[in-house]
Design brief:
heterodimer; A: about 120 residues; 7-stranded mixed sheet; 4-stranded antiparallel sheet; globular; B: mainly beta
């Protein structure tokens, strides 16, 4: 079955960097666009970044643009999120998700991982 | 960005109840609306996509209606496994945005 397992979270000081990974299995990873979605403590879900199936097209939320970089290694079935210049507002559980397209129009975060917690604190 | 507003933010219910959660978009999003279920420490799950289509494997007690700006998620015969937080999400335009969530307790 589909599995997405995030790793790389932890406690980091403001201004530092962290790289998250998402290991995918159970589906043809190279055929799917992938996303990062985060949930800050006590807050709702926020889409963070997306990458096309081949890795050519990338998009970011305004809140992370210029600081975060999404990438993927289709030979290893791994999605990454490089997070630089972290601030306390980046504290959240970060989930990866694949995107399915139904009936050619309906884009859905189809499968998610449990997430990895990033805490930015001095 | 399209703003998604859910109500209520939380509700108290009992097993066997029927509950309805509403989601309103700040502009017309046609039927590009998905519903997700979140439980602490577990992977979120998609329940409904395209406003009213039950995702494969989703229990039939979940149903969605609406188009344009107003949408609802209904859970009939609430089960213990359904106590969770529910989010609507639009995919009409980027960036994808979520409602603030409705906690069912």
């Amino acid at each position: 079955q589909v599995q997405l397992v995030e790793s790389g979270g932890g406690v980091v000081q403001p201004g530092k960097s962290l790289r998250l990974s998402c290991a995918a299995s159970g589906f043809t990873f190279s055929r799917y666009a992938m996303h990062w979605v985060r949930q800050a403590p006590g807050k709702g879900l926020e889409w963070v970044a997306s990458i096309s199936y081949a890795g050519r097209d990338k998009d970011y939320a305004e809140s992370v643009k210029g600081r975060f970089t999404i990438s993927r290694d289709n030979s290893k079935n791994i999605l990454y999120l490089q997070m630089d210049s972290l601030t306390v507002e980046d504290t959240a559980v970060y989930h990866c998700a694949n995107e399915e397209i139904y009936s050619s129009y309906y884009y859905v975060f189809d499968n998610w991982g449990r997430g990895t917690l990033v805490t930015v604190s001095s | 960005d399209i703003q998604m507003t859910q109500s209520p933010s939380s509700l108290s219910a009992s097993v066997g109840d029927t509950i309805t959660i509403t989601c309103r978009a700040s502009q017309n999003i046609r039927s590009y609306l998905n519903w997700y279920q979140l439980k602490p420490g577990t992977a979120p799950k998609v329940l409904i996509f395209a406003a009213s289509t039950l995702h494969s494997g989703g229990p039939s007690r979940f149903s969605g209606t609406g188009s344009g700006t107003d949408f609802t998620l209904t859970i009939t015969d609430l089960q213990p496994d359904d106590f969770a937080t529910y989010y609507c999400q639009q995919r009409y335009s980027d960036p994808r945005t979520f409602g603030q969530g409705t906690r069912v307790e």
